[in-house]
Amino acid sequence: MKKTTRLATNDNQFSLPIKIKDLTKTYDDVFALNRVSLDVEAGEFLTLLGPSGSGKTTLLMAIAGFSRPTAGSICFGEKEMVLTPPHRREVGMVFQNYALFPHMSVFENVAFPLKLRKVNSVEISERVYEALKTVQLSDFSERRIDQLSGGQKQRVALARAFVFRPRILLMDEPLSALDKKLRDQMQIELKQLHRKLGVTTVYVTHDQREALTMSDRIAVINDGKISQLGTPKQIYNHPANRFVADFIGESSVLPLVCQNSNMLYFMDQLVAKLKAAETQKLWSLVIRPEMLSIVSENEINSPDCLIFCGIVLEYIYQGETALVIVKLENGSMLSVRVSTSLLQQKHQVKISETISLNLDRQFVTLIPQELEK
Ligand code: ADP
Ligand code: MG
């Protein structure tokens, strides 16, 4: 899927692709970034997703120009940027703690980047009001920052980041200080804003659901390296290694061994699909809880079924779904997500009782056991 460069709103500026090559940043003997290479397409919404300390902020700060990498290259379009100071990069930035000017009004905060760029006051006024309209704060221009709620402050920070029509927008966990309802709402608003502006966006979060909700593509980052890059669907359905399988969504990882003859045939098919050289490796199955369903006695012998049998250890009611934790005969654990309405109609789940589970084979992913760590 190749996107063409999109026009930014009412302007002739193009959004830019970002090409990062072998970027390394060390602090003493810590590799905050370890030879990271990443291409962000023009106009794309790309999310850096990873646990705390994985290097997300370091990468964002290097793109913005606030931190000088130890080695490697960052190009905007074809132009090398590593030595360009932040104010010459034309990058809009939203910080986790908003970083607004508390003594200025909403208007003055949003006008600030335009004043720096010596835009005339008539145009400043027009552009600030347009930006405030976009973030639904038209009526708040004269308010002081300390008279705003968290969500309103975040909108001011956003307006300030895009008012000067940057060609790249960077956001570092911008919603993490908001409560869940507001965060969900702001995720949708940010997505709509991105669609409207068409600006290349790099977004940082440690929240996998937020990343899945918002992104064109996700770069999963772990320990200063990119662990996997792909669309939300690719990352969720085909995790490349144990880290991604665990970090995004829920999963059970089982060594590839045969449970019964159907399983044996299925495993043979899976292994046959692997490249010949890779059949020597040991593999594990990644199984998402929603890929399993509870089956009753009379369904077990169907030739299409891949059946696991085990004992119910735990039943956790979570509203629309329930999570059932099952211990298999070989000691492995499997988590199964079931719709509670279906459960009420069809199957009784009782702790300590034996249960049979069918695995939907089209969704099974294999990962090499050497990549489990
Ligand atoms: P994230 O944003 O993913 O939580 P960071 O990019 O802030 O992670 O940090 C990555 C690693 O670099 C961490 O191990 C962190 O302790 C280290 N680090 C970040 N900034 C500094 C600094 N100024 N001095 C020393 N170590 C740092
Ligand atoms: Mg951070």
Architecture overview:
The protein is an alpha+beta fold and 373 residues long. Helices cover 28% and strands 29% of the residues. The protein contains ten helices and 18 strands. Strands 6-7-8-3-9-10 form a six-stranded mixed β-sheet, with helices on both faces. A five-stranded antiparallel β-sheet has the order 13-17-14-15-16. A hairpin with a 4-residue loop joins strand 15 (321-328) and strand 16 (333-339). Helix 2 packs across helix 3 and helix 3 (121-134) crosses helix 4 (150-162). The radius of gyration is 25 Å and the shape is elongated. The chain starts with 17 loop residues before the first strand and ends in a 5-residue tail after the last strand. The structure holds adenosine-5'-diphosphate and magnesium ion. The site of adenosine-5'-diphosphate has 11 residues, from strand 2 and helix 1.
Task: Give the rounded overall mean pLDDT.
Answer: 86
Helix content: 25-40%
Radius of gyration: 25 Å
Tell me, what's the shape?
elongated
Question: How big a fraction of the residues is strand?
Answer: 25-35%
